[in-house]
Amino acid sequence: MKTDIEIAQTSHGVPITDIAEKLNLSTDEVEQYGHLKAKIKTSVLNRLKDRPDGKLILVTSINPTNAGEGKSTVTIGLGDALNALGKQAVIALREPSLGPVMGTKGGATGGGYSQVMPMADINLHFTGDMHAITTANNTLSALIDNHIYQGNELQIDPRRVIWKRVLDINDRSLRQTTIGLGGLKQGVPREEQFEITVASEIMAVICLAKNLADLTSRLSNIIIGYTFQNEPITVGDLNAEGVLTLLLKDALKPNLVQTLYQTPAFIHGGPFGNIAHGCNSVVATKMALKLGDFVVTEAGFGADLGAEKFLDIKVPILEKAPDAIVIVATIRALKMHGGVPHDELTIENPEALKLGVANLEKHVQNMQKYGLPVIVAVNQFTSDTDKELALLTRLCEDLGAIVEITSSWSDGYQGSLALAEKVISIIEEDSSDFEAVYSFGMTIEEKAETIVKELYGGDGVFFTDKAKEQIEIFKKYGWDRLPICMAKTQFSLSDDPKKVGRPSEFTVVIRELVPKMGAGFIVAFTGDIMTMPSLPKEPAALKMSVDSNGSIKGLF
Amino acid sequence: MKTDIEIAQTSHGVPITDIAEKLNLSTDEVEQYGHLKAKIKTSVLNRLKDRPDGKLILVTSINPTNAGEGKSTVTIGLGDALNALGKQAVIALREPSLGPVMGTKGGATGGGYSQVMPMADINLHFTGDMHAITTANNTLSALIDNHIYQGNELQIDPRRVIWKRVLDINDRSLRQTTIGLGGLKQGVPREEQFEITVASEIMAVICLAKNLADLTSRLSNIIIGYTFQNEPITVGDLNAEGVLTLLLKDALKPNLVQTLYQTPAFIHGGPFGNIAHGCNSVVATKMALKLGDFVVTEAGFGADLGAEKFLDIKVPILEKAPDAIVIVATIRALKMHGGVPHDELTIENPEALKLGVANLEKHVQNMQKYGLPVIVAVNQFTSDTDKELALLTRLCEDLGAIVEITSSWSDGYQGSLALAEKVISIIEEDSSDFEAVYSFGMTIEEKAETIVKELYGGDGVFFTDKAKEQIEIFKKYGWDRLPICMAKTQFSLSDDPKKVGRPSEFTVVIRELVPKMGAGFIVAFTGDIMTMPSLPKEPAALKMSVDSNGSIKGLF
After folding, report:
1. Distances from the Cα of A212 to the Cαs of A205, A218, A311, in angstroms?
2. Tell me, what DSSP letter sits at residue A541?
3. Is A208 helix (H, G, I), strand (E, B) or coil?
4. Which conformational region is residue B239 in: left (phi greater than 0), alpha (psi within -120 to 50 degrees), or beta?
5. Which residues of chain A from 188 to 217 reach within 8 Å of chain B, CB to CB?
6. pLDDT band of B432, cuts 50, 70, 90
7. How far apart are CA B536 and CA A149, in angstroms?
8. B81 and B12 housed in the same domain
9. Across chain B, which distance is largest between two alpha carbons, in Å?
């Protein structure tokens, strides 16, 4: 088997203008970035506003494990298979963050024969969206500190600045810093914690804004800190929403690329799945829905985080609910949920598989609570045995779930044809009857309780004193009418990453709330959420190179 | 008169593919970035390696003042005029840094009717070169701190790390920071000074590398700090040159745009003019020389910094010396050199003008020392009187210099036709007989003395004890055989910014030397050189906006 970068580098693709033409986009609407990438102008949404939306398929998964689930691979394989079956299929994915690419994760463009291309470009600078967000975020930081330095008319308390600088780099050393040192001419000293770019509220804003005017309005609402009297200060108070919009105007335009089989794919936006909502942009998904008959998209982490936020935060803005949910599971990961350690996953173990299926079961039931039809996609690995595959299929049927095996990583679109046929058939039944699990009008406590009890399977929520105080303040400003964005470990349905499978009898502790008024949600922090990753002892970066002919090595 | 952004937004330009076609570039060699920008593959240099170079015109200036000289405007106007006279003219400029655009400076794309376009794009993210350099620079920083954290096999002394993080933002608060705080899991505490991206050695490396292999080799040579035993550590010691090359492979490709009159213009690279060499990239200039018959390029600051470094640092790598030098002067700026305060510049003052011409005289003589023919371009302002213009013309003729008035800001290419004719005529005389003022084999002391005595007009150099110690160390490693890059104020021929005109009887103090082994020069620091600018009380950024139709305001 070739490596991902080898497969990617042997495939040349067709000019992106051909892909755009297939989608009936006019030359004027397409801004090429090299031969294989393009930004599509948002004016397309106006032109097609009366065209009915295509069908929407949301790909999500069980709680992720170190064994890997291959959600992107399944998403791409399913799109390719729908395309091969004669449907106008369009894929909508998040764009990768450079930090993890340089660390251990490698790229985020699928794998094997289910990839979007150009793989190296997408994983590196792509069309500059991440850099635009980094720049806008840090320009705002410079404007805040400059305001404080130049007389501080707004009376911003340097100890209460919550807006943090970001870099798209895994950089442990910037987690806790002091800035503004050096005396009278070098600024006002204060503490600063750098985060990774995808954790910036600007990333969430880009992904939830409907258009340029909405972008400006959301940016204006962002709270950057509090005065000495503890009153909130917004970007609008600083008059900075104009320059931020200017810096972000191109980043708002969706990026069009293609799969190895020339299926059109939008790769746009990539907010964190814990402190943000973890889905690609509303603008890109909407554009895909206007241009395609079947849109396959993906949400971050497991269905408890990614799908929940897609359905409760993104859908109200997108004004379109999924027509089907695909939950990706692997036998390896289910065995981990059944208690098998990482180095024994290739050993056949039906008992552990049976135990681990409890995790899948809960996610299937959760999606059904939203009134959505569910298909389980078993992403096949070479180590899976026939006995295990047969067992898992039967267990899924026992749950009342439709199930299909997929092997797009090794077999390309052909590995997902059966899955695609089942997806088409379930969508033709038109059984989607979407209903949110909570309403925005509920109190913060009620919304959090609903998520924890209904979806996580917990007993309830414990709010720390700090969180309780914050809820009172938020009520005063009317912020309690926003959806809740749970910042929780992705590894468990509970807030304890070690509790695999389907834990019960647990209480989720919410220790702090952060208002994200630009994004339009309240982040509820449970446990320790890391917003600046770090590099391992042997970073992937140090294996990467490019020779004098431009041939790339070590990117995977 | 319209503002620059108004003029820029009313001009639509032709597709960049048309400009590329005019230069006989193949479709395959052109990577479009939207309709009006493109990166050109460096393979063009191989294809045309046997074609003779075009003629090279270097535009420089007197010592800059707050009154402004308009060097870019003259460069663009001259290119347009050469084009209008039927020459295949190509312009090669530096690309702007976003930090100053957001501060007070505004854009760096010319002005009035002498502009390159698309103005807003070039001043903002352009094709992402600055962001790629920021990312590569800071990825290297993260790798250094991670190495120290993960056992520090190379024994890097955290107090001796000289590699600094950068942002392309004017951010006073990051000038002096402490990082790695927060305890055992958050890195190793140390001091850090952020600089602006254009001050990164990577920017200088991009601008001096001949090709991808040379880029890797130069990156590998960069010194990032010293061990506890004070031995130098390079990027190569960290094995990081591969990933840095990967991150920079597209940034090495020159960017092609057009002027308002469709003259092709390469805008590529923008290193600082004090701690670096202040010229656009070797790759872009060489490409322009292979594609054009007349290439007009520019060097940073006045001729004492920009032109000197162009001739002593860039020319040996470019393997091509200028065929003519254009020194830009304005009556306003010369009056400032004659002692007139900023608010009295619009008052006619022939006496001050006469005094101020001494500054111009020195630069003319300096360029003649290199054996190069010189033309003085008087960039006309509306406040200039006929009497002053006639006087300046006569004074230049007294100096034995060819002189011409240019008015491209208000008149476009027509304002530079007379200048262009004189440039053509001087080039046809073929009188360029280039000779460097110093040889690399001289000692550091001799090289610095030569620059100060021959070009600045000073009495000599005073080396601090620290600098003397460094010279001994540099000799040990053989670094003393490199050219000197003087980091000096741009406002005076001396190292004292207050000494306008043509100062004499001064000694330049060199307080510190820094080896830039990737760029291939030794920076000699004189006085205080600011490598992280700051925002003013009312930043230009806060006046910028973009409306829902994408129309931009406040960018100038």
Report:
1. 11, 10, 23
2. G
3. helix
4. left
5. 188, 192, 211-213, 216
6. confident
7. 10
8. yes
9. 72
Distance set, CA A358 to CA A62, A343, B8, B466 (Å): 10, 22, 62, 69
Q: Please report the residues numbered 442 through 461 in chain B whose beta carbons come closer than 8 angstroms to any beta carbon of chain A.
A: none
Q: What is the CATH number of the domain that holds B294?
A: 3.40.50.300
Residue with the two structure tokens 């030359």: A27
Whether B535 is in a domain gets the answer no
User: Annotated binding residue at A69?
Assistant: yes
Amino acid at B10: T
What's the average model confidence in pLDDT over A60-68?
Answer: 85
Task: Answer yes or no: do A119 and A87 share one domain.
Answer: yes
- DSSP assignment, residue B65? -
Sign of the alpha-carbon torsion through A451, A456, A461, A467: negative
The answer to whether the annotation marks A70 as part of a ligand binding site is yes
What are the phi and psi torsion angles at B262 (to 5°)? Answer: 65, 25
Question: SS3 of B495, please?
Answer: coil
Cα–Cα separations (whole angstroms), residue B164 to B150, B160, B161, B224: 20, 11, 8, 9
Percent of chain B with pLDDT over 90: 88
Residue A514: closest CA among A241, A133, A193, A299: A193
User: What's residue B387's pLDDT?
Assistant: 95
> Phi and psi (nearest 5°) for A510?
-100, 115
d(CA B248, CA A552): 12
For residues B257 and B384, membership in a common domain is answered with: yes
pLDDT of residue A400: 85
Query: What does the alpha-carbon distance between residue B144 and residue B138 come to, in Å, rounded to a whole number?
Result: 10
- Separation CA B552–CA B113 (nearest Å): 18
Residue A50 belongs to a domain: yes
Q: Are residues B83 and B97 in the same domain?
A: yes
Are B158 and B111 contained in the same domain?
no
Confidence of residue A67 (pLDDT cuts 50, 70, 90): low
pTM of the full structure:
0.96
Does B139 reach chain A within 8 Å, measured CB to CB? yes
User: Does any CB of chain B come closer than 8 Å to the CB of residue A221?
Assistant: no
Q: In whole angstroms, what is the distance from residue A32 CA to residue A30 CA? A: 6
Q: Per-residue pLDDT averaged across B205-216, rounded?
A: 97
Closest to B109 (Cα-Cα) out of B99, B92, B125, B122: B122
Contact B128 A125 (CB under 8 A): yes
Which of the listed residues B373, B396, B429 is the one where a domain comes to its end? Answer: B429
Model ipTM value: 0.95
Nearest CA-CA partner of B106 in B34, B8, B31, B175: B8
**Alpha carbon distance B4, B1 (integer Å):** 9
Domain count, chain A: 3
The answer to whether A34 and A13 are in contact (CB under 8 A) is no
B243/A545 Cβ within 8 A: yes
B96 and B233 together in one domain:
no
Strands B89-93 and B294-298: parallel
CB contacts, 8 Å: B145 with chain A: 171-173
Structural domain includes residue B472: yes
Residue A413 has phi, psi (to 5 degrees) of: -60, -30
Question: What DSSP assignment string belongs to A98-144?
Answer: HHHHHTTS---SEETTEEEESHHHHHTTTTSHHHHHHHHHHHHHHHH
Residue A455 lies in domain: 444-526
- Digit-coded pLDDT (tens) for B342-393: 899 999 999 999 999 999 999 999 999 999 999 999 999 988 999 999 999 9
- Which domain CATH number covers A240? 3.30.1510.10
Give me the phi and psi of B163, to 5 degrees please.
-75, 125
pLDDT tens digit sequence for A128-145: 999 999 999 999 999 999
Question: Both tokens of residue A360?
Answer: 């899948």
User: Cα-Cα-Cα-Cα dihedral of A204, A209, A213, A218, to 10°?
Assistant: -40
